[in-house]
Amino acid sequence: MSSATRSGSTRKVAVVGVALSDCGRVDEATPYALHAQAARRALADSGLSRDVIDGIASAGLGTLAPVEVAEYLGLRPRWVDSTSVGGATWEVMAAHAADAIAASHANAVLLVYGSTARADIKARRRTSNLSFGARGPLQFEVPYGHSLIAKYAMAARRHMHEYGTTLEQLASVAVQARTNAATNPDAMFRDPITVDEVLDGPMIADPFTKLHCCIRSDGGCAVLLVAEDYVADCASEPVWVLGAGEHVSHTTMSEWDDFTVSPAAVSGRLAFGRAGVTPGEIDVAEIYDAFTYMTLVTLEDLGFCEKGEGGPFVEKGRLLRDGGLPTNTDGGGLSAQHPGMRGLFLLVEAVRQLRGQAGAGQVRRADGTLPELAVASGTGGWFCSSGTVVLGR
Fold first, then answer.
1. Smallest Cα–Cα separation from 122: which of 6, 259, 28?
2. Is the model's pTM score more than 0.90?
3. Each residue of 37-65: pLDDT tens digit?
4. Distance from C-alpha of 161 to C-alpha of 308, rounded to nearest angstrom
């Protein structure tokens, strides 16, 4: 399969190395150490020498990201990206990296992330985020106490009002994520939960109780993308970047045209179109799930069901590893890990599934074969941005 890039180049791009750092409860490591651990593991997974890396993409750490991360890793890249659009950052960076490699601006680009978000709060080095600040356009919302989670909650309530989506349907997203996490040894929470347990939990922001919300963990991961020329020297099976898309929508809620439509409606259409595939051909979906509603509405906007049908779509185990559309097969941000910006974890899990390296959590097609196509779709802010990447074997 070939990559469909905006540059029109015919040079194909593959993911050849993926890895997680230590994840979950990591009290003794620094974010830089998690970056380095993930990068070393991804490089080992690829079988390539670090000397091939001539590009790096990183965000969320230091004053001059990714310069500080590159220096810490001992790299001197000639191509860099520090795009920061929240949880969608890593899918957007993957799209930029694929375009750069296809156009011969770089040959091997390392995407790397690490965070001690959980440990920092436990050690009182930081506090929880209620908002992203009070400067610029955000100043008009902050005085009303409009917290980050409240924005997601408002959007969920609007979808419930418009389409009759139920709390039970939203809760089923969390239940299925936890079921998928049960087979993932790297997942932070693996014990089963029920819809009733989700509904009866402490209220965080109506309609979200605690289990409707992502966990807070430590951890990092890395992904290495290379030009097709390097694939023959790799230790791992290549997973090809087939197409990608990105889109930004709004930052203030008053500028969001429709609370029931996320920017994935645009990024997904672009990614599928450039890849030359349809949503119906996808075997595995890795969706950013800071909250249960995010999974539901992104599935709609990517075209897996019609607008307003997300509630019935997610019911009856459709998102499970052996369901109709295996989704967040590692347990997602709701159960596996969520150390701040989870988008890179989506790419790691998608690649592992396509390679057949997901262990007890491996997805199989109806005929017993490995999945052929996967989509990773990240969302940033409060549905402010989206990046979608289609991958294939």
1. 28
2. yes
3. 999 999 999 999 999 999 999 998 888 98
4. 10
